[in-house]
Amino acid sequence: MRPDYQMSQLDVLEAEGIHIMREVAAEFERPALLFSGGKDSIVMLALAERAFALARIPFPVMHVDTGHNFREVLDFRDRRVDELGVRLIVASVQDSIDAGKVAEETGRWASRNRLQTTTLLDAIDNRFEAVFGGARRDEEKARAKERVFSFRDEFGQWDPKNQRPELWNVYNTRIRRGEHIRVFPLSNWTELDVWHYIDREQLEIPSIYFAHQRTVFERDGILLSDNEFITRGDDEPLQDISVRYRTVGDMTCTGAVESTAATISEVIAEIAATRITERGQTRADDRTSEAAMEDRKREGYF
User: Fold this and answer.
1) Which of 125, 256, 275, 294 is deepest in the core (most CB within 10 A)?
2) pTM attached to this predicted model
3) Can you tell me the distance from the alpha carbon of 298 to that of 143, in angstroms, rounded to the nearest whole number?
4) Contacts with 2 (C-beta within 8 Å, 6 or more apart), sequence order
């Protein structure tokens, strides 16, 4: 490398992510990577490809499926996994409901999103020592408290006051039986960083992230897709408009944004102009209170 060479911000973030991936592979026998088919997990999977180039990714990918996910995203997930030849583990919230471990919510904002915690912890229990997640610190306040290597106790719970110091990219990976580590390679990325990386690396993403015509209705300022999992009120008329999604998750609580951005460059320009975070704008389950996400994370949520 030339002495005058300057790494770009994306180069630095990519190198950090690759270092984290390799550190986990070296320190843990049984890691897994959470992959939903969303943009952050797509970038995370791309980092894993680069970290272990010329060989297969040495761990499985796992999706906690609520049963209420966008079809476009699930189709992309399955195709991408087949292309890479990695093993996909699907942890089903419906299975947790059928087993009586969780109960369906009721009410206006009933969602299976919160039920994922039990399903995730059951999937991890004594099976995986480390789990990669795509959370970023810029998403909301509770996630800003996360370490890159986030310790979980034997009950899968998170205590923000009991996290280990991380100095000079040196990570403490020691755990006892039943404990595990959540690892966040994208912690220092922003939403714009993710999109710039997708643009630079020409990563394929689901079409739902680009502007398209969709039948939606407005509920408390959020544009929800008309679907079989939501009971629409008489005061919630349908409308066909051009929308796209900034984040993807359970269809019952994930909203769209009005948009004409049909290319990555147009999406980047749109995001650069907004002052509202993606979750703050489009995720109903994060709007209940500032402490909502932190409470769920303490219980074992992503």
Assistant:
1) 256
2) 0.91
3) 11
4) none
Please check whether residue 259 is in contact with residue 270, taking contact to mean a CB–CB distance below 8 angstroms. Answer: yes
Q: For the CA atoms of 54, 59, 64, 67, what is the dihedral angle to 10 degrees?
A: 60
Tokens standing for residue 112? 């299976």
Residues 6 or more apart from 294 whose CB is under 8 A from it?
141, 142, 145, 160
Dig out the tokens for 22 from the structure. 């390799």
Of 181, 174, 116, 118, nearest in space to 153 by CA? 181
Computed from CA positions of residues 218, 103, 77, 156, in that sequence, does the dihedral angle turn out positive or negative?
A: positive
Residue type, position 148, single letter: V
Tens digits of residue pLDDT in 85-103: 999 999 999 999 999 999 9
- Of the pLDDT bands very low, low, confident and very high (cuts 50, 70, 90), residue 287 is low
How many residues would you count in the chain? 302
The pLDDT of residue 59 = 97
CB-hemisphere CA count at 13 Å for 203? 26
pLDDT digits (tens, 9 = 90+) for 230-254: 889 899 999 999 999 999 989 998 9
Q: Is 243 exposed, middle or buried (0-12, 13-18, 19+ CB in 10 A)?
A: buried
Q: What is the pLDDT of residues 100-136, one digit of tens each?
A: 999 998 877 788 888 999 999 999 997 999 999 998 9
